[in-house]
Write a structure and sequence with these properties.
With 255 residues, this protein is of the alpha+beta class. It contains five helices and eleven strands. α2 (81-91) packs across α3.
Length: 255
C-alpha cells in the first residue's frame, strides 16, 4: 500500500512539472522573441536598413515599435468584389522574403519565383488575384505614353520585365487610370482608406515603398497594410513613413 502511495505521488509531481515545461515552450503561452532583419525596398534599389521584426514605429524607423497584429483586431468589409480579391491576393503573400534582383520574366502575366519578391510585387500579385495584370497594363500604357513616365533609370523604351515592379511607374499608372485619394490619415479621413487600396510611401532613406490596405483595423480604426520591406507582413504601419500616394484601382463602377 505504501509503495502505491509513493507511485501516485511521483506521477503527480511529474504532471505538475510537465505542465510548467509545456507552458514555457515557444508558441504556447510565451510571446515570440523579437529580432532584427535586413530591410529593402524595390528592384535595383537595394540599400538596407534595420527595423525591429515586430514592425515599425508610428514615428518612422527611429520611433517605437508598432504593435503586432492580434486576433482581436477589428475588420472592415471590402466595398467591392475586386477589392476583396485584392486583399486576399495580398494576404496570400505573407511570409514571402524580400529579393530585389532583376529577373527576365514571361509576358504577359510574368512573375519571378513566388517565394520571393519586393514591395511592388505584393501589389502586382494582389491585383492579379482580381484579374488585373499590371505587367501588361503598365507596359501598354508606357508604350503609348512613354514620355509621361519617370525617367529615373535611363531607359529609352519600356521594359516589361521590370517597369511594373517600380513604384514610381505604378504611381504614374494609378494617377492616370485609377482614383487618387487622400494622403492624410486622421479620424476624419480614416474611412477613406478602404481594403484593397494602394498606398505609397517615401522612406527616410528617400527610397519608395508600397503596400496594399488590409481589411484589419487597429484600435483607432486605422487600417493595417500588407507590404514587403524584408518579409511580407500585415502590419499596423500606415503612418510609419511619409505617404506620397493613395490610390484605388480599378475605379469602382458605382463611382
Amino acid at each position: 500500500m505504501q509503495r502505491n502511495h509513493l507511485l501516485i505521488g511521483a506521477v503527480a509531481v511529474l504532471c505538475v512539472l510537465g505542465g510548467v515545461i509545456a507552458t514555457n515552450q515557444p508558441g504556447r503561452n510565451t510571446p515570440p522573441q523579437a529580432g532584427n532583419a535586413p530591410q529593402g525596398v524595390e528592384p535595383q534599389e537595394v540599400e538596407r536598413q534595420e527595423v525591429g521584426a515586430q514592425g515599425v514605429g508610428a514615428q518612422g524607423v527611429e520611433g517605437s515599435l508598432a504593435p503586432m497584429p492580434t486576433a482581436t483586431a477589428m475588420r472592415i468589409k471590402a466595398a467591392t468584389p475586386d477589392a476583396t480579391k485584392i486583399v486576399v491576393g495580398a494576404k496570400k503573400q505573407i511570409g514571402i522574403l524580400y529579393d530585389p534582383a532583376y529577373v527576365k520574366i514571361d509576358y504577359p502575366r510574368g512573375d519571378i519565383s513566388r517565394n520571393k519578391g519586393v514591395c511592388s510585387d505584393v501589389v502586382v500579385r494582389a491585383l492579379r488575384g482580381a484579374d488585373h495584370d499590371l505587367q501588361r497594363l503598365v507596359h501598354e500604357d508606357m508604350k503609348s505614353h512613354f514620355a509621361l513616365y519617370p525617367k529615373n533609370w535611363g531607359l529609352k523604351k519600356p521594359d516589361p520585365n521590370i517597369d511594373h515592379r517600380r513604384v514610381p511607374n505604378l504611381m504614374r499608372f494609378f494617377e492616370r487610370h485609377g482614383r487618387v485619394l487622400t494622403k492624410e490619415v486622421t479620424a476624419a479621413t480614416a474611412r477613406q482608406w478602404q481594403p484593397g487600396d494602394i498606398v505609397c510611401w517615401r522612406l527616410p532613406n528617400n527610397l519608395y515603398h508600397t503596400g496594399v490596405i488590409s481589411d484589419r483595423l487597429d484600435e483607432h480604426g486605422i487600417p493595417f497594410v500588407i507590404h514587403n520591406l524584408s518579409v511580407c507582413r500585415e502590419e499596423d504601419c500606415l503612418r510609419a513613413w511619409k505617404i506620397i500616394g493613395h490610390y484605388r484601382y480599378p475605379v469602382p463602377a458605382h463611382g
